[in-house]
Automatic annotation (TrEMBL):
Residues 259-412 form the DUF418 domain. This is DUF418 domain-containing protein. The chain crosses the membrane at residues 38-58, 78-101, 113-131, 137-152, 159-176, 235-259, 271-290, 302-324, 344-363, 369-388. Keywords: Membrane, Transmembrane, Transmembrane helix. InterPro entries: Bact_Transport_Assoc (IPR052529), DUF418 (IPR007349).
Length: 424
């Protein structure tokens, strides 16, 4: 999964020109950069499961695991799965509001700039989704971001009401009684996916991404002609995409609400509130997610992911913001800060490196290393990216993909290298 401060906000360099331009580094909320960097770690730990076993294949691997691998799988599911994608989504909405407020303060256009920003993200996401890795989230962000454009000017309470309505609609299906037998069986597709990813060439894997539909292989339990089956499979695929986009948009609205309330802008002033939010939301969120892991209840599994995950994410955002602001000068927090400022570049780099390691056109290690080795690889890559990001940002103003995105957004080539001041 699952993104950069450049995916979520536009804190950029000042300019006196008539068009919007990037904000100066001194105007950044640095604890948000660090939070984003930490979220990159959480997302990679979750995405490693998909890189190692396939995006659909991860659904059935728990029964194959034992010992430390099984424990680590449950720990990742509990603490990270379904929570750090929402962190990024909320920060996306948070940053969009900051960009809009800044444009309004200076009397400059917002909508067309933001729409251009989303269209460029849409192209990046489509390319990433079909030609690098099918676990992409950028495309979904772009689609939800286009809708967010029409809500950005609304009052905080209006934004919150819409978010709560969407949250209810997304969670309401979980109230319908169901059993494990009612769940869609994707095991046949999972086996096909593993074979293609582990043995296929780049062309074969790309063709699979462009043409495959996971729902084509399901047993519907009743007779249906091939055309009807294809139409139903296409409907399920569309509905799944729509649900994911609705969830992203709902989380954008929550982030927009937080930005409009300025809770993360003034941490000292709001410390008491943020501590309470952290304790309550992390406790409730992780309790729901824990019930999802410890039981086979279909309803708890549904609410654990779609409700528990976002609730825990809100607690992570408030708690980690306080932590990163307090220890902002430590090397660890500075490392996460640099990582977060180049989150888009780092996120896309994960896909290139890990698909090369695990897919057939690379080293072909799909399903061979296990959860422990995969997690250690993820942590090692994050540490390397911390050092690289810090080095890069000491010489350049933006990461490579961040620079490309900004230049396209403002229809102007942005300054790239940092200008060194002459010492006398």
């Amino acid at each position: 999964m699952q993104l950069s401060k450049d995916i979520e906000s536009d804190h950029e360099n000042k300019s006196t020109k008539a068009s919007l331009s990037p904000i100066d580094l001194g105007e950044r909320l640095h604890h948000i950069d660090s939070l984003r960097g930490f979220a990159i770690l959480g997302i990679l730990l979750v995405n490693m499961l998909s890189f190692q076993y396939g995006s659909i294949g991860i659904e059935g691997i728990r029964s194959e695991l034992s010992g430390l691998d099984a424990m680590l799988y449950d720990l990742i599911e509990w603490l990270f799965q379904g929570s750090f994608y929402p962190v990024f989504s909320m920060l996306f909405g948070f940053g969009a509001v900051i960009m809009w407020e800044r444009a309004a303060q200076k009397g400059r256009p917002f909508k067309r700039v933001f729409l251009r920003r989303m269209i460029i993200l849409l192209v990046m996401g489509y390319t990433h989704l079909h030609f690098i890795w099918d676990g992409d989230i950028l495309f979904t962000y772009a689609m939800a971001g286009l809708v967010l454009t029409f809500f950005i000017k609304r009052k905080a309470i209006t934004v919150l009401v819409w978010a709560l309505v969407l949250a209810f609609l997304l969670n309401a299906p979980g109230l319908i009684p169901s059993t494990e037998e009612d769940e869609i069986d994707l095991s046949t597709y999972s086996e096909l996916e593993r074979t293609i990813l582990s043995e296929g060439t780049y062309a074969e894997i790309t063709s699979h991404r462009l043409t495959a539909n996971p729902f084509e292989k399901i047993d519907l339990g009743f007779e249906m002609g091939s055309m009807e089956h294809q139409l139903f499979a296409d409907f399920l695929n569309f509905f799944n995409t729509l649900t994911i986009t609705m969830q992203a948009f709902m989380l954008f609205l929550i982030g927009a609400f937080i930005a409009k309330k300025k809770w993360l802008h003034r941490l000292s002033e709001n410390r008491g509130l943020l501590v309470k939010v952290t304790l309550i939301f992390i406790t409730v969120g992780l309790a729901l997610k824990g019930s999802m892991i410890l039981t086979d209840n279909v309803m708890l599994d549904y609410f654990g992911y779609l409700l528990g995950g976002p609730l825990a994410a809100i607690g992570y955002i408030t708690g980690l913001s306080l932590f990163f602001a307090k220890f902002h000068s430590s090397n660890l927090v500075q490392g996460f800060n640099s990582l977060g400022r180049m989150a888009l570049t780092n996120y896309l780099t994960h896909s290139v490196i890990m698909t090369t390691i695990f897919y057939g056109y690379g080293f072909g290690l799909l399903g061979e290393l296990g959860i422990l080795i995969g997690s250690l690889m993820a942590i090692a890559l994050i540490v390397l990216q911390m050092f690289f990001s810090k080095w890069w940002l000491s010489r350049y103003q933006f990461g490579p993909m961040e620079w490309l995105w900004r230049s396209g957004t403002y229809l102007k080539v942005q300054p790239f290298r940092k200008i060194e001041r002459n010492k006398s």
